[in-house]
Each structure stands twice: as C-alpha cells, then as structure tokens.
Amino acid sequence: MDAVTASPNIGRSIPRLEANDKVTGRIEYIHHLRLPGMLYGKIFRSNVPHARIKSVDVSAAEAVEGVFQVVTIDDIRKVIPHPYYGPAFHDQPILADGKVRFAGEPVAVVLATDKRIAEQAAALIVAEYEDLPGVFDEVDAMTSQTLVHDELKPAATFPDLQHLKGRKGTNIALDYHLVRGDVEEGFAKADHVFEHVFRTQQVMHTPMEPFVSVADAQDGSVTLHTASQGPSFVRIEIARLLGLPENRVRVRVPHLGGGFGGKLYIKLEALVTALSMVARRPVKIALTMEEQFFMVTRHPCTFTIKSGVNKDGRIIARHCEVVWNGGAYADIGPRVTQKAGFTSAGPYDIENVLIDSYAVYTNRPPCGALRGFGAPQTAWAYECHTDMIAEALGLDKIEFRRMNILREGRPQASGTPMVDAAVEQAMDHTLDLMNWKLPFDRGSGKIRRGRGVAIGFKGITAPTTSVAIVNLYGDGSCALYIGTVDMGQGSDTVMAQIAAEVLNIDPAAIKIIHPDTDVTPYDMGTLGSRSTYHMGTAVRLAAEDAKAKIAALAAELGLPEGTNAPLAELLRRKYGMQAGNIIGTGSFIPDYQKPDTKTGQTIKGTPFWGVGASGAEVEVDTETGHFTITKLVNVADVGTAINPKMVLQQLSGAAIMQLGFTTTENMVFRDGQLTNGSLADYKIPNLLDMPREFINDYTQSRQKDGPFGAKGAGESTTIALSPAIGNAIADAIGLFLPDLPITPESIFRALQDANGTPLAGE
C-alpha cells in the first residue's frame, strides 16, 4: 500500500454508512412508498412481436369495481402531444402507438385503488392485431426489408451521440467505424490469417428490487419518486416531454435494491407521469419479477473477428465486425455500439485495425446498459480468438499475449494512449493466484481438466459531468449533497471517505443527502464505473473548496495562518452564536476529444481504462458434457482502493453476475416469443453454483488523476471471465465453443460433432 493510501480515511475498510438501517429494515425503498389518493397501475402487454393494433377493448376492465380508469395512448396524447422518449432516439412511445414492436410491449394500463383489482382487470382487456413480419436475428436485420421503425428521430441529448442522424429504410440505428493503419495491407503481409465468428445471448439484469416508480403530477409540476440510476437525466427528459422548465420537475431517489444499468435513463418514469396527469392523482407502477424481462435486457451480438499474425507471433492486422441486437427500441444501444466497439480489438498493440460496429433494431424486447456495457461480449470473442490463434500456431498462450499486449503510453486502436492501465500486472497477478507454473492434473478417462486465462478492458463513457456540494453547519457537522445513487455498491461510504480525508473528520459523521433534483446537484448518472472517478473528484474539489473557505474565515478573524481552531468556534466568532454555513462546491468533467467521424481516432476517448483479468480451472465429463468450475480467479485494476473490503465485494458480485451470463442465463425466443420468462426457467447463479475456489483481488496500482489514485471497480471482473472459462473448457476437451452460454448440452453437441455423430435438432 503506497503512502497516499496510508492515511486516516483512504484505504480503510470502514463499515457501510447505511448498514444499520438496512439490517433493521429502516432503509427507504420506493416499493414501500404510499401517497394519499394513490392509484396502482397494471400494464396490459402485447402477445405478438410485430403487428398493427386494430382495436383495444377495455370495456370489461372498466366495469370491474374499484377500477378508476383504463388508459391507452389516445388518453396520453391528450396530456402529452408527442409521447416519445429515449436517450439516443426519441423512438419509444409511452404506450404502443398504432403498432407493437415486441411481444410484451405495454399497450394499456389499468388504474385502480388496489393493485390486485388492477391486475384482475388488466387480464380482461382484449386487443386485436394485424400481424406483420418480424425480424429477430441481428445479422438478418441488417439487410431485412422488414423495418422495425419507419423513421428515427435523434434525441441530441448527449455530446457523444449528437452525430446521430435520422434514418429511413433500414434497421441500423448507428454504425460506428474505427480505422488505424491499413488493415488489408496488414493481412497481405501476414504469415497467417485467422477468422472466427462468436455469438452472445440476450440476458437480463435481475435486480432483487424490480422496477418501480411513483408520479404525482399536479398544478403544472411533477414529483417523481423512482428507483433510478440517473435522476438528473430523468428530470431533463420528463421536462422535455411536458414542455416544463426543469425546476418544475422533481426526481427523488433513495437507495436501490440493485440496478446494474437497467434502471438508467427513462424506464417507468414517463409512463407513471403520463398516467398521473391523466388521472390527476398520484400513480404507482411496480413491476413483477416476470415483467422485468420486457423492460430492458443486455444486447446479444454476433462478432466476426479476423487477425493477421506473423510467424514470430506478432499480430499485425485485425478486422472486427460487431452486430448488436438492440431490440425494438434504441435506449442507449448506440453508445454501447461505440464504447464497446472501439475496444473490440482487445488490449493488444496492433498497427492495422478496422472496426465496424452496428446497432440494429429487431422485434425483441429493448436492450440497454448492463454491467460491462458491451465489453464482456467483445472480450468473449477476442480472448477466445487469442487462444485459438496461439493453439493453431503452437505458441504458449500466455507468452503470445505478453508479446502483443498494450503497454503504458502506447496508443490503443483509437489513438488514445493506454495510461494508468495495469493490464499486464492484472494478468500476472491472476497467473500467480492460479499457480500457473505448477504442474496441472489434466485428468484421465472420461474426466478431463483444463485451465484458461483471459484479459480485457473497456473505455469509460465520456464526456460526463458530476457536481457535489459540501455543507458544513454551525456546529461543525457536515452533509454531502450528491446525485450518485447508492444501489448496493457502497458509493455513499466511499464519497464520505473522500470528503473526510480532505476535511480531516470521521466519515461516519458525514450525512449523505440522497439524490433529489430539488436539492442535490447534477450528476450524469450512476453507470459505467464512473462514480468513484467522476463524483469522487467532484467531492474532493467541493471539500477542498470548503477547506479553503474555512482558511479564509480564519484569516478574516485575524487568526494566524495554520491555526487549527474548530469550525464551530470560527463560526461563533463570526456570528456571535451557533450560526452560519460553509458551502463548498466542486464540478468535474474530464478532458475529452471527439473522435474523428471517419476514422474514430482521438487522443482522449476515455477518461480512464477499466481493466480486468480472469483465470479458470474446469473439470468436464466428456460422456455427458457436464462441467464444474473448480477454481475461478478475478483480478481488477481499481487504482487505489478507497475501501478495500467494499472493492472486493464489488469484484465478487460482478464476477458472480458474469458467471451466470456465461453458464446458465439465456433468454430463449421462438419466433419473437420469450419461452422462459420467469425465474423458474431463467436460471441465475446461487451459492451452490459458486466454484470451489473463488478468489477476487486487485492490483497495486494508481490512477494518477483519480481521487487519491482511485477509479471505478464495479465492472472490471465482468470483462474477461467468460473467455477464461471458455478457454479452460477448450483446454480440457480440445474444442472451442463459439457461442454463449456454455452449457452441458453445447459441450456434448460439440463433442458429438467432433466424433462424427452429430445430434439432431438445434
């Protein structure tokens, strides 16, 4: 631990500030909220994936005693003339408008005084549709004549998406391209050329707290109580929808019971606001676990990767084509397409790179941000591809990586230098924890054992802004006003530690004021591992501003420089009693250079790099395909760990989540219909699924421009985990599997195919 972390508050595993309230049940969640006169909404959803709406019969539902009203898009248009929203395109209607674009899309809402009555009435609604052809596969959608949208209208909200243009006649929402060097010339000069295709599946966030929002719209203003990771954006978008100034829209967010990216941007907020305006009463909608499958999911993708390699093992050319299945509405998919696209060549030093990344509409549920923001999908491809190349060339897989790895100061494919990115250190620490150099028992008979390693990285969303306020009261106590949402990651505690370090006080003495847009300042959102770096820096600056004002007050009172008088005493001297405040403010937006529109080149495309490495040992029964992960190691570069225990908890949680996406989780569709839309059929990992040895750790590194050397930790162990397991299974059975998830069936089918006895069916 370096000298900076050996301090009163940085590098200390203090308990979470909210821990006592959580274990005693006093913590506030929106699911508990009841407002006077509140109505409950239950959504009636489409049962077809693509169709024109011929009619919606709500008469039977309206006749149910206790039903207040049944609302369709026609009712909403009376209060919101243009009822479309979205962070990238204004493409999503508050309720289905003229047609439905995926099975499960909201068509109508029953409002009732009791949620059970609303549910009973919603089951009585009958809709008649005129079926339209559907398109469900992302590659097919690229050229399909079946269009999900007739026209796209860019939102122009975020700086990195302002280049989006309206489109007609295509399902491609965004195409991103990066060019470095001459990839075709590189392939021509290469001694070997390898090309593989990889696919990842559609999965969901599955937070323990389902989506929930409450709106109270009256007298030309709106108050939203919502489980959101981005209250500032919700305020901006609701104000735009209603044509109101931002000071007439209030968004309150307490603690969240998990988010993982799903509760970003607008989800239920536009709907409950519209319903409250129609009903002129507060309205609450809380989704069931099953309904979450139709809210937002993670992008499936098809990744074609082609590499040119010299006989000495140097990669000299790489072409990546990534096609992202965005579902029926864009959400933030165009940003995923860009941010994951520009790192899709992997953490390697390659002179000639061409990347083509496409966001594509289909008639599936919408896809958006999910922990890792596309980096786990791309790492699955480039790290399995790396092992396949080394295997074909007879090269050591670790030394092949080491030969090609990006090192400090070298430009990544986008032209942005790799700075403060401990890629090789993370790999080496993983190898040490794997005991890689010791003999390895590969099994015998039907039981085969293998091991694999993978490394990965991601760029961070940019440019984004965070603002913080430190308020020191007349008695010297402190409150910290921030828009960062604590959804279980421990951000309240970390921000208190940062402020306490500057102000030389106990973090436990700092009160965190949770996001309330009438009170707390702007923050772009709690997403993409940005909070510790962005908001942490804003908090540090706000605390330093307050500290400077304390020093100025002491000078004003004629005290010698360096006098260490308590703030309460200074304020009493100033005002003659216990009174007054010291207010410190801090605002932070990191440097950013917009990429060239033709080449994608920029010298500052990300504020920092998210880095992770993983290693896995597996045991495979070659007669059945069943496998056990006997050891799983994950190492992240988090810079300085502000709170080491919470960092390890973050790394562990991220790894467990990605383990599910690797081995068990898969939204299975048939002709656009989800066939396993419940937790009885959609399997997330539990404690019994954990590897026998499960090790999570971080490198001793430092992000020089981060707060006290820190950067984000929430996603790093999602990136390389899947290919580490995939490479380990390939090492055990001698066959690479190109598609996720890896299941006993997929292993068994691969073995049967290799034996010349393929199984029938898919």
What does this structure look like?
- With 762 residues, the protein is α+β, with helices and mostly antiparallel strands.
- The protein has three domains: 33-132 and 207-288, Aldehyde oxidase/xanthine dehydrogenase, a/b hammerhead (Aldehyde Oxidoreductase, domain 3); 297-461 and 596-754, Aldehyde oxidase/xanthine dehydrogenase, molybdopterin binding domain (Aldehyde Oxidoreductase, domain 4, 2-Layer Sandwich), CATH 3.30.365.10; 464-588, Aldehyde Oxidoreductase, domain 4.
- 26% of the residues lie in helices and 24% in strands.
- It has 19 helices and 30 strands.
- The strands form eight sheets. It has a seven-stranded mixed sheet.
- The longest helix is centred in the C-terminal third of the chain and has 26 residues, at 531-556.
- It is globular.
- Mean pLDDT is 96; it is low at 1-5.
Largest sheet: 7 strands, mixed
Shape by Cα distribution: globular
- Give the end-to-end Cα distance, rounded to a whole number of Å: 53 Å
Portion in helices: 25-40%
Total count of helical runs of at least 4 residues: 19
Strand order of the largest sheet: 3-7-1-15-12-13-14
Tally of DSSP β-strands: 30
